[in-house]
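Design a sequence for this backbone.
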């Protein structure tokens, strides 16, 4: 996972979604780039008609609502981002893993 995209035109819910994602990334100590996509044509390329939306690895994982902190944490953990140091680049074995944060 290299980039998380927040799809939305800048409405309060889109901004809240960005805040939730940033907060969770910080809690999990994952250094992932967040990209905001505000262009409606680009948003429609993801087949999203209701924003905000969150895209991870070019797959829409949330659309049309603000995720809770816990939900976002679960989603990011399922994509390999974790607060367990030994599971995320904390050992030589996991340092070469493609799921390493």
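Sequence:
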């Amino acid at each position: 996972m290299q980039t998380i995209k927040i799809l939305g035109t800048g409405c309060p819910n889109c901004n809240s979604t960005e805040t939730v994602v940033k907060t969770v990334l910080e809690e999990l100590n994952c250094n992932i780039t967040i990209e905001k996509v505000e262009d409606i044509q680009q948003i429609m390329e993801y087949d999203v008609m209701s924003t905000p939306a969150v895209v991870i690895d070019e797959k829409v994982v949330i659309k049309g609502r603000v995720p809770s902190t816990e939900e976002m944490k679960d989603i990011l953990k399922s994509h390999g981002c974790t607060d367990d140091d030994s599971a995320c680049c904390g050992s030589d074995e996991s340092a070469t893993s493609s799921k390493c944060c």
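Residues 3-95 form a domain with the Glutaredoxin fold (CATH 3.40.30.10).
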